[in-house]
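Think of the structure tokens as a kind of shorthand, similar to the way a musician reads notation: each symbol stands for something richer, in this case the local conformation of the backbone. In the example below we present two proteins back to back. Begin with the first one, reading the sequence and then the tokens, and try to describe in your own words what changes along the chain.
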Amino acid sequence: MSKHLHTALALAARGVPPLPLRAGKVPFGNCPTCAKNACGGRPNMKTPGPCTCPAPCHGWAAATTDPDVINSPTWRRAWREAAGVAYHPGGAGLTAVDLDNAAAIAWARETLPATRIVPTTRGEHWLYQGAMPSANAVRPGVDIKSLMAYARWLGPSTGTMTALPDIVRALIVREPAPVRPAPVTVPAPAQGGKCPHRTPTYLDRGIAMAEQRITQAREAVHATVYRTFLAVLSTHGRCGCLTATHTARLFTAAQAKGETARHCTDAWTNALTTLGL
């Protein structure tokens, strides 16, 4: 029995679906029967599970915990030629945060909850209990590998695995782009030029609370900034009270949490568009 086959059977016994990797850390190509999805079993790679072909075809979807498949004659040939073993994290109910360099690792240590860590050639995989959609380049040097993806099996890990946190799920959330370019402005005062708020203190207190909400955000900072801008504009955006000074205070608070000036402008513009301002 080859070393890779032995590893694959051990993983399958633990509920982790493996698949063989050839040189270059890529799955084996489809067999002639399945070439160009001729088998009809894996159109567009959008549904889980292998087709009826006995070969390890269709990339991540070939991963299985069935020992009879893993140890079948066709798969045994693949294991003899394999350069490594991969697994389907999502199929095991896991998410791997792939940190590709020292800067990404430093970010994770400052931002993410501690969990099980696997050293890689260039960085680390942080493993969490729970599955989610996969995505590449969610931030510099960081990929998410879970559903419909594979990760290399790199041997023993350290630490205790924790539940998949919202801050990791939020990494794949993309704020919608503005419908059209718009300047960051505030509408004119309400009819008659009178502010409906009782005193200027009401606005000052609202801005201070918004700054505090952004400053205290521990995760999902992008979403927190957008929701805070939306709340401020829904309350104060129609009376003409907001000034460039108020906007600058909110932008400064957001940038102190790592947001760029461009993101602040886009979030503000999106909030204006959402409210019809």
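Once you have a description of the first chain, move to the second and do the same.
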Amino acid sequence: MVALPMGGARAEVAVRLTDLLPADFADGHFLGRAISPEGPVVISIRNGALFDLTGKVSSVSGAVARRAFDSGRELGPVADGLPDGWALASPIDLQCIKASGVTFALSAIERVIEERARGDAGQSAAIRTQLEATIGAGIRSVVPGSAEAEQLKTALIDQGMWSQYLEVAIGPDAEIFSKSPVLSSVGYDAPIGVRSDSSWNNPEPEVVLVCDPHGDVVGATLGNDVNLRDFEGRSALLLSKAKDNTASCAIGPFIRLFDDGFTIEDVRKADVELTIEGPEGYLLEGRNEMAQISRDPLDLVQQCLSEHHYPDGFVLFCGTLFAPTQDRDVPGAGFTHKIGDRVTIRSERIGTLANTVTTSRDAPAWSMGIAGFMRNLATRGLAERI
């Protein structure tokens, strides 16, 4: 069974863990979280079996920092699923949730479209045609931060085509922002939220890197960096309102840990497939090809680290190639979510993350923050193992 993590209403559905994991899961090593009747538990998968690590390490961030992946109590074969009464949750807890944006040429063009349309989806088609013709080839052909990129910037300024989004697309500094508060992300099958007052929004299927306190990448998972295009399009200063809302950050299903059979090279060449199934029969399919990213994932990690410190580690959304432009209702207005959309994100070596769209207003309240998490562990005698 899986259900909404962190308390609140639970909408349980029968699901097999083997349906969420990659086909080669028996050869891989995975780390995750569940909510038991007593509270959060840390779980791992290795050699096709499920383990409870909580008696040894009571947080995923601690397991990552100490590389405490191999101890624990065996629960049984993965095919048997979670114990009765347990629900799968987002596989991260105390890590900071960071994200990088405008890391693909297509996403750069779409951000400039939002800026020029001032958040009005009805103007997007005409602006898209113009921008693709004038800047598309240029930003695809240069290395961010290079001399060639600086020359392109000068030319675009002279043409009146420059944008703050192109600065982070081809300039030396990547866009890095805080996506969501600690412990606020939702996992597989939890509702994902868009603001009730947004009329132009979309999912963003991404690979999410999982890093220890030193910035070393230990594995990868999937994420949905839900985005409000109308809000950010009105002003880039509304980025936080566009990105950080209740249930607007989905991560899961598990962290696939790096080993001899799964490395950063698999991340670099990963394809992330997205399917949106609307309640009215609408279907949209897309693909995020990590091979087209303009900045190497490890460079993004270093830019996230910068002069910062993350004592509990951090996770980093790598950005997306995918920006849905297929019309849904109004010709020329492109795509926006409807309540009830089923969003499925899948990558062959990482797994499957699926969620159903609701409004952030109506999504189950986020009820266990850092204080609640610590109180729960303390009552269970687990606080010192965090």
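Compare your description with these statements about the second chain. Confidence is low (pLDDT under 50) at residues 1-13.
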